[in-house]
Structures are given as structure tokens and as C-alpha cells.
Write a structure and sequence with these properties.
Length: about 450
């Protein structure tokens, strides 16, 4: 069993569009994911998040499951279109009331609310005006952050501004695999800058409203060159810059990697001062390493043929894989944490693993039990990886498992299950899996020392 500090924070994580449902309830506006799902061929099973897990109406049941699990914190995201239906202007008080109820229910159970302001569900009217390609979206995001914080900052223990700006930029604006479905290639970089600017502006708005703990949730991967050739090494280094460094260095160092600032919309130097506002913690989302080589015609990158990109993603063999086909490489998480410490030193705030999990589609057996042994093995090995990083001196304070519930898994629809709790998407019945019981035992054992 990996050794973790007794005060190590254990949590679970979800995202609003993936679990809430209630798409037409109480004045919620439309999001880019509603629009994307309505386009034929975008979602693997043709589904959408209109109902999802119906957590909008069943949040009390989900909070009870977390209480039984024994977690210290719940990372959830707030739906921007539920609060500001047009993205700017009119405030939907019913949306704020929902999150008020959720936060109160968590606090009553002794679970720390950890809120993410943007987990990909941009209000549709803002995308019509250009979405994250436009500077104004970052400004609207800060105003939305202010509205939310003025209502909730007295009770929310942790705030994350933006979730995975690199994924939004690459899959949403570069390759079109995710909403809003734009295929701009490297011309998507303005979205990266404005997401980071939105982070910085929102962080300021949160603090002004009394938020005590502010951070960001960044997706990090360790990059493996496909070979020792000079071309593959150069492509891997470029991918590392485009996936990791473009997003971490502005936030933690106040600068872009060499050659990148000139590619961003201005005023870059002014914006970097906002983006680099001090953080209370740094969130790391990790799933697997990425093997990268030089580009070849017809290589598949992010699901699209992208031979015009200056790198190619290669399959990683020799490791077990999840039902998503992702390699299970827990030592990659240790490597990411070491890399962050090496790159940023004292500039790296305390770290929380804000997402880590796996897709295994284990279904109930004839007795109704969901015996997801592979998920238990995954979590055990990745907690060992966190423990190894802590022992090596990385200041990791907590770990949020992805995810509490089986949910709407973006472009994969309901075909991939990440939950500690099985959800029957016909009846919406929740069934805790074997991994749920294992995770509860792991929390108790850590607290006992």
C-alpha cells in the first residue's frame, strides 16, 4: 500500500455537462456542447448531455454517495450557461440557487466544495461571436467568475478557473474532435492565449470576491520520442512545448516559451502579468504518456488526419490499456510531477492531482455487483506513483479520482465508463462498484496512518 500523509486530501471529480442534465431546467442557456451534439456524426453513439446522470435533480443522492465514500472534497464544475445564459449580461438567479443548494449539502456532510468555473461548456452566443478566439470572451469569463464568487466564495474551499485549456484549444479549435468543432490547426493558438487570459482575469475576480484558494487544472503528459532520431526528438520537444509548456510557463513563470509570444494576440506582455498572478495551488490532470515522432502523411492526431501538423502521435505498446485504448503507465504520473518540480522549482505551488482515472466498461454481474478489478489496480498503482513523487520531494497535497459517476464522456457519448459508481442510463440508478469500496478503504487506511 502506498504511503501518503495522514492529512492527504482525497476527492472525486465531475463536470457539469457530463453529469447534470437538466438542460432545459430553470433558465439554463444553450452551450457549445448542446450545439456540437446536435450535429450528425460528432458523438460516437449519437447521444448528448440533455439528461446525462440527472445530477441537477439528484444531487442530494450523489452527495450522500460521497459522504459514504468518505472523501474530503468534491470537485465539480459550474455551468456558465446556467448562470449567464447568453454568456454576458443577464444573470439567471435560479442557476445560482442550484449551486447554493449543492454547496450547502456538501458543507453539511463535511465535504469541501472544490469548484471549477469552466469545464468546456461555453455559452453558445459567445461562440457565435468567436468564442475563445476573441479577447472579449476572457473578459466575459471574469465577470461570470465575479458573479459566482460573490454568491459562493464564503463556502467553496478551492477554486479552479479553467479546466485543461490545452484540450479545449487542440480538440475544440484545432482538430474539431470536441466542441465547438473548429478545425483551425495551428491557427487555433489565439484560443490558448485567451483561455489563459481568462484564467488570470477570473483569478483576480475570485480574490476580489473573497476566494481564499485559487488555482487552475492543467492537463499534463510526459512526452516520449518515438525513436532516438533527431527528427523524432525535435518533434517530441515541439509537442511538449505545444501541449505542456505553452500553458504552464505563462501561468507559473509569466512568459511563453521562446518563439511563441509572437504568435499570440496582443498585448502579450501586458496579458502575461495578469496570467501569472500567484496561485495557491496547481492542479494536474494526468491520464497517460504521449509518444511523438516526426510527421508522416496520414498519421492520426487526435482522431483527425493531420499531416499538416509538425508532429505525429504514435501508439504506445507494451502496457495494459483501458477500454479507451489508453496505456496504463502510472510511472508517467511520477515523471510529470518530477518534471514540474524541475522546470519550476520554487515557482511551483502545492500540487493537487485534480483528475486521474480510467475507462473500464464493467457492467453489473447477475447479482447486481460491479466488480471492476482493473479500476482498483489502476488507482492503487497511481496512488503509488503519487507517493513516490512525494517521497522525492514534490509537494502533492491531494488527489481527485475521475470520476464519481459513469457519465457522458464527450465525443464518446455513453460508451466509456469512468465512474466509481455505475449509472444505469435508462433508469439513472446508481450502484457503487467494487472500486468505490476499495477507495473508501484506502481513505480510511490513510487517515489511520
Amino acid at each position: 500500500m502506498p504511503k501518503l500523509p495522514q492529512d492527504f486530501l482525497f476527492g472525486v471529480a465531475t463536470a457539469s455537462y457530463q453529469i447534470e442534465g437538466g438542460a432545459h431546467a430553470d433558465g439554463r442557456g444553450r452551450s457549445v456542447w448542446d450545439d456540437f451534439c446536435a450535429r450528425p456524426g460528432t458523438i460516437l453513439d449519437g447521444s448528448d448531455g440533455t439528461v446525462a446522470c440527472d445530477s441537477y435533480h439528484r444531487y442530494a443522492e450523489d452527495v450522500a454517495l460521497m459522504s459514504e465514500l468518505g472523501v474530503d472534497a468534491y470537485r465539480f464544475s459550474i455551468s456558465w450557461p446556467r448562470i449567464v445564459p447568453e454568456g454576458t449580461g443577464r444573470i439567471n438567479l435560479a442557476g445560482l440557487d442550484y449551486y447554493d443548494r449543492l454547496v450547502d449539502a456538501l458543507c453539511e456532510r463535511g465535504i469541501k466544495p472544490a469548484a471549477t468555473l469552466f469545464h468546456w461548456d461555453l455559452p453558445s452566443p459567445l461562440e457565435v461571436d468567436g468564442g475563445w478566439l476573441q479577447r472579449e470572451t476572457a473578459e466575459h469569463f471574469a465577470e461570470y467568475a465575479r458573479v459566482v464568487a460573490e454568491r459562493l466564495a464564503d463556502r467553496v474551499a478551492m477554486w479552479m478557473t479553467v479546466n485543461e485549456p490545452n484540450v479545449v484549444t487542440s480538440l475544440g479549435y484545432s482538430t474539431g474532435v470536441h466542441a465547438p468543432g473548429r478545425t483551425l490547426g495551428l491557427y487555433a493558438l489565439p484560443a490558448a492565449h485567451h483561455l489563459l487570459l481568462g484564467h488570470g482575469l477570473a483569478a483576480g475576480a475570485l480574490r476580489a470576491a473573497g476566494a481564499q484558494s485559487v488555482g487552475i487544472a492543467q492537463n499534463h503528459t510526459i512526452v516520449w520520442p518515438a525513436s532516438e532520431s533527431e527528427a523524432d526528438q525535435a518533434s517530441a520537444a515541439l509537442f511538449d512545448t505545444m501541449w505542456n509548456r505553452i500553458y504552464s510557463e505563462p501561468v507559473l513563470l509569466g512568459r511563453y516559451p521562446d518563439g511563441i509570444a509572437s504568435m499570440m494576440p496582443g498585448p502579450v506582455e501586458h496579458d502575461l502579468k495578469i496570467i501569472a498572478a500567484p496561485l495557491d495551488f496547481y492542479g494536474v490532470n494526468y491520464y497517460n504518456p504521449t509518444m511523438v515522432g516526426s510527421p508522416h502523411a496520414g498519421e492520426i492526431v487526435g482522431g483527425n488526419v493531420a499531416s499538416d501538423l509538425p508532429f505525429a502521435i504514435h501508439d504506445i505498446s507494451g502496457y495494459p490499456t483501458t477500454d479507451f485504448g489508453w496505456p496504463v503507465v502510472p510511472e508517467g504520473l511520477t515523471a510529470v510531477l518530477h518534471q514540474l518540480r524541475e522546470r519550476f522549482g520554487e515557482r511551483l505551488p502545492p500540487v493537487f492531482i485534480t483528475e486521474n482515472g480510467c475507462a473500464y466498461n464493467t457492467l453489473p454481474d447477475p447479482s447486481g455487483a460491479v466488480v471492476d478489478t482493473d479500476r482498483i489496480t489502476f488507482y492503487d498503482s497511481h496512488l503509488q506513483a503519487v507517493s513516490a513523487a512525494i517521497e522525492a520531494g514534490v509537494d502533492v497535497r491531494g488527489y481527485f479520482a475521475w470520476s464519481l459517476l459513469d457519465n457522458f464522456e464527450w465525443a464518446e457519448g455513453y460508451t466509456k465508463r469512468f465512474g466509481l459508481v455505475h449509472v444505469d442510463f435508462d433508469t439513472l440508478a446508481r450502484t457503487p462498484k467494487a472500486s468505490y469500496a476499495w477507495f473508501a478503504d484506502r481513505i480510511r487506511a490513510t487517515r489511520a496512518g
